[in-house]
Design brief:
Distance between the termini: 79 Å
Strand order of the largest sheet: 4-5-6-7
Strand content: 15-25%
Structural class: alpha+beta
Largest sheet: 4 strands, antiparallel
Order of helices and strands: EEEHHHHHHEEEE
Number of strands: 7
Number of helices: 6
Radius of gyration: 38 Å
């Protein structure tokens, strides 16, 4: 930028503060005060409006999913609202979403369950929300689960070990204990194989 000539005996810093006159006796005199700084033009930006609560989206989506699962049956939309409210009151949002998805899937494929829930109406919404989702399966699926459990028990009777509570779900599990070689001394262990259809996990514990 081109330099600006100032009168002899005047000083100017990098920022305009005031014009200063330097006298021969080294005294200085401020002869002009700087103009006041201008305020920013316009009002400060207002804080962003808070986003809509996610709970409303969860509620509306759950109601839509359940309404669709009822297949357009009379009273299905109203019952979907009551069920959604009951699930969200009884469980955390994440748990409620998972259970509502399970219920919607069961309602689509299990006609007996769908008719039963519709017949019970909104008065039974809290009871449905408290049910074990495995109870929503059809009779055929329940019979298959019982067959699997019987097979598992038969396999357990042929397997070394005893039946104890599963560390994961508290159900029945085959328990086998022993020791394994380790540095300087053997380490005891316990192995659990769950027999419950809803779990089926294997847990290995070391001392």
């Amino acid at each position: 930028a081109p330099s600006v000539a100032w009168p002899a005996g005047s000083l100017r810093g990098p920022k305009l503060t005031a014009e200063i006159i330097v006298h021969d006796d080294s005294d200085v005199e401020v002869i002009r005060e700087p103009p006041p700084e201008e305020s920013p033009v316009g009002d400060p930006p207002s804080p962003a409006a808070p986003s809509a609560s996610g709970s409303g989206d969860v509620r509306s989506r759950a109601q839509a999913v359940l309404t669709e699962a009822f297949g357009g049956a009379a009273g299905g939309a109203e019952l979907a609202v009551a069920l959604t409210n009951a699930f969200l009151e009884a469980h955390s949002p994440a748990e409620a979403r998972a259970r509502i998805r399970s219920l919607a899937s069961a309602l689509r494929v299990n006609a007996a369950l769908r008719e039963s829930v519709l017949a019970a109406g909104a008065a039974a919404a809290a009871a449905v929300a408290a049910e074990d989702p495995r109870e929503w399966a059809s009779d055929e699926v329940k019979a298959q689960r019982e067959e699997w459990a019987a097979d598992a028990m038969a396999e357990a009777s042929r397997t070394q070990g005893e039946v104890r509570p599963c560390p994961e779900c508290g159900g029945r599990a085959v328990h086998v204990s022993g020791s394994s070689a380790a540095f300087k001394m053997a380490k005891a262990y316990a192995h659990y194989k769950c027999l419950e259809v809803g779990c089926g996990k294997e847990t290995h514990e070391k001392e």
